[in-house]
Structure formats: C-alpha cells, structure tokens
Amino acid sequence: MQIQEYLWKESDGKTTGEKNLARASYQRYTERIQKAKPSPMSGMRFFLSDLPASTVEAYKRLIRLAGGTIVSNVKEATVILCQDVSKGPQIPNVPCKAPLYLSEVILG
C-alpha cells in the first residue's frame, strides 16, 4: 500500500478550516518527500549521561526521530547529553558548550 492513500487531502475536509489544514499538511508532506533533506540531527551520535530514568526513552525517541543515533560508548559520541553539565563525563580537551535545547537543534 502507498502512504498517499492515507494522507488527509483537502477533499476530505468538511469545513473551511479543515480543508486549509488538510491542504497545508499535504503540501508539507509532499515537499518533505520531494526535497528529502537530511534530518536535523543526521550524523550526530548521542551519548546519554546522567538523565532521569523517566525521560531517557523520550530523549531516545526524539533523537532517533530527528535522525540521530544513540551510542553506548562515550568515545564514539559527537554529542553528550546530560541533565547537569557538572555531573556529565569529563573528557580531556573537549570543550563544554553552554546549555542547548534539543528543540533548538531540530527547529534551527
């Protein structure tokens, strides 16, 4: 089956608002497929350190959805994600950047 069969099209909307939303979402989907730009975190390898257990799975899903990968060895990582910078792994000669929100990486 083709995914296009399940997309919400303008003809599926009943009100003007629904039709506008359907048209916009369909256009957005087709643009993403046609352009096939790399994901915002494509090529980034994340090491998760010192994160609350309740948020680890959410971070993993977000990172994978944005094209990043999770690694278990800190030496393989290009990004170390930790709740508190002072408690994260200290790697010699690796600068520590100011706090950064993942949403900024994805949307930026």
Q: Which helices and strands occur, and which strands form pairs?
A:
Elements: H1 16-35, E1 45-49, H2 53-65, E2 69-70, E3 79-82, H3 102-107
Parallel strand pairs: 1-2, 1-3
Question: What can be said about this structure in brief?
Answer:
Helices cover 36% and strands 10% of the residues. The protein has helices at 16-35, 53-65, 102-107; strands at residues 45-49, 69-70, 79-82.
What does this structure look like?
There is one protein chain. The chain has about 110 residues and is an alpha/beta fold. It has three helices and three strands; from the N terminus they run H-E-H-E-E-H. A three-stranded parallel sheet has the order 2-1-3, covered by helices on one side. Helix 2 (about 55-65) links the parallel strand 1 and strand 2 (about 70). The longest helix has 20 residues, at about 15-35.
Largest sheet: 3 strands, parallel
In quaternary terms, these chains amount to: single chain
Strand tally is 3
Proportion of beta-strand residues? 5-15%
Give the spatial strand order of the biggest sheet.
2-1-3
Following the backbone from N to C, one meets helices and strands in this order, namely HEHEEH
- State the shape: elongated
Q: What is the arithmetic mean of pLDDT? A: 76
Share of residues in helices? 25-40%
**Class per helix and strand makeup:** alpha/beta
Characteristics of this structure?
single chain, 108 residues, alpha/beta, 10% strand
